[in-house]
Specification:
This protein has 508 residues and is an alpha/beta fold. Helix content is 32%, strand content 21%. The protein is built from 13 helices and 20 strands. The protein has an eight-stranded mixed sheet with strand order 8-9-11-10-14-18-15-16, with helices on both faces. α3 links the parallel β6 and β7. The longest helix is centred in the middle third of the chain and has 25 residues. The radius of gyration is 23 Å and the shape is elongated.
């Protein structure tokens, strides 16, 4: 996997394979961004090349130049930042990602983008790490139960040096180190999402999590409920979803308890992730084209697993428990039917309306389990509804909750990490759509406001007095298009950084 290091040395003197600098867009084309620190001869040469190539300096533009005078590196990568007045941490994150993707096969790279404060330096570091990601297709040859090495991430990458104009003080070092921890965790989530579904059954997911925990700092414990324990424990939602598959369901609990944590005397956060390792739609089967990306329907659970590991690695004072609700939704003679009534973990009966709306059933049980531990807050994260994409597109998650202040905290955490989300309501008048004449709840309402009624359904399972937020990541969890900025094609790892930032915000 990539590594991140901090340096205050002159960029031009570093003996690396490539260095990265920024360009800005002007009326006359691209110009080097200020603060690069390169010798005059190097800067003059690069400006001349940018002019000759008619570079624009726009976001996403990457130009590689070799044999630059007075520069030790073999190549200089110039990555576009757009207009100088519009450069933000998010712009720097994307530019670093684009640049590193272009040299991801190199052994050593140094990045000297104009980071004027620690937030910008953290964004550069984050983007540089994220841009190194590649999914190793050879890993698909590994059997489903085989343990992988290190963090279980299949990605590799260069040694990246981030050049700082802010010195090398404790907080500056911490910003770069934090970016490396979150980057490694996010790569794990990306790898899990990208793994073919025949190699990532619920039990194989369990094994991958155990391997990642074993390779970590040793601060996370893992327990697993198998299909027998789930049935005995009254987890009718996840049992019903998984009963049509030859690969039975699991709920994995990952726990990080900081040193000295004493329950009610410390902060505690519960994270619940939807982990449908493949979603055929069950008996309400999806069209063939609709199944092509359904290996990614476990992106919520992947984000939770990665976030718990990252939080433990960073060693904050907040206790974190992750619940991974893993099942495979398949049609068969044993699959649940529309019209079935199942009993959830908290005793609520639910009428099944559409077997392709399975995510809320596994999450409902997971939220019940999380509530039993009485955490301060619960966040569930899931690729839950197509309605999320209709409302907000493929880049912006929807956030709902039972407390406006906590919902805003989740949105703010994402904004600080370059993961966009938008606060959405839970209108009381839509709750009537979940009424059933044969059960306590119908598990799906009509099509209008589908993202919101899914949130209303989940709210029914939150324990009394617990602040809760639901994050629908159906769009941003998987990128079907080409790589863009710090976002690769395929699994994006969306949500990992948001959850870690949210956990950190509870420290106060």
């Amino acid at each position: 996997m990539p590594s991140l290091n901090l340096s205050t040395r002159d960029l031009a003197t570093l003996k690396v394979d490539a260095i990265v600098v920024g360009s800005v867009s002007t009326d006359s084309g691209a110009e080097l961004a200020s603060g690069h620190g390169l010798p005059k001869a190097a800067a003059k040469h690069l400006d001349a090349v940018l002019t000759d190539l008619e570079a624009k300096g726009k976001a996403g533009e990457v130009v590689r130049v070799v044999a630059v005078p007075d520069v030790s590196a073999t190549a200089v990568v110039v990555t576009g930042l757009g207009k100088a007045a519009d450069v933000t941490p998010d712009v720097l994150r994307a530019a670093a990602g684009s640049a590193l993707r272009s040299v991801a096969t190199k052994s050593t790279v140094a990045v000297g983008l104009p980071a004027a404060d620690e937030a910008s330096l953290a964004a550069v570091s984050d983007g540089a790490y994220a841009g190194c990601y590649t999914f190793d297709a050879a890993s698909t040859k590994v059997s489903a139960g085989a343990k992988k090495t290190a963090s279980t991430a299949a990605s590799t990458g260069p040694k990246v040096t981030v050049v700082s104009s802010l010195g090398s003080g404790k907080s500056v070092k911490a910003a770069v180190e934090r970016a490396a921890v979150i980057g490694a965790a996010r790569d794990l989530a990306r790898d899990l999402v990208n793994t073919p579904p025949n190699l990532l059954t619920p039990q194989a997911f369990v094994e991958r999590v155990k391997a990642a925990v074993a390779a970590s700092s040793g601060k996370v414990s893992v327990s697993v409920l198998d299909e027998k324990a789930l049935a005995k424990g009254g987890f009718g939602g996840i049992v019903g979803v998984g009963q049509g598959s030859a690969n039975p369901p699991r709920i994995v609990t990952m726990t990080y308890s900081p040193s000295g944590f004493r329950g009610s005397k410390g902060q505690s956060v519960a994270l619940v992730g939807k982990g449908i390792t493949f979603d055929s739609g069950g008996l309400c089967i999806k069209p063939a084209a609709g199944m092509l990306t359904m290996k990614s329907d476990m992106a919520g659970a992947a984000a939770v697993a990665a976030a718990v590991l990252a939080a433990a690695e960073l060693g904050g004072p907040v206790a974190v428990t992750g619940y991974l609700c893993l099942a495979e939704n398949m049609p068969s003679g044993t699959a649940q039917r529309p019209g079935d009534v199942v009993t959830m973990r908290n005793g609520t009966t639910v009428e099944i309306i559409d077997t392709d709306a399975e995510g809320r059933m596994v999450l409902g049980d997971g939220i019940c389990l999380a509530s039993e531990a009485n955490p301060d807050v619960i966040v569930d994260i899931a690729t839950l509804t197509g309605a999320q994409m209709v409302a907000l597109g493929s880049r912006v998650a929807g956030v709902m909750g039972n407390d406006d202040t906590f919902r805003s905290a989740v949105v703010d955490a994402g904004a600080a990490e370059g993961e966009d989300s938008w606060p959405m309501p839970l209108p009381r008048e839509l709750r009537a759509g979940l009424d059933s004449v044969v059960a306590d709840l119908a598990h799906k309402a009509d099509r209008w406001g589908g993202m919101l009624t899914a949130g209303l359904f989940l709210q029914e399972f939150v324990g009394e007095g617990i602040d809760w937020a639901h994050v629908d990541i159906a769009g941003p969890s998987f990128n079907e298009k080409g790589a863009d900025g710090a976002t690769p094609k395929g699994g994006t790892g969306y949500g990992v950084a948001t959850l870690v930032r949210l956990i950190e915000s509870r420290t106060a």
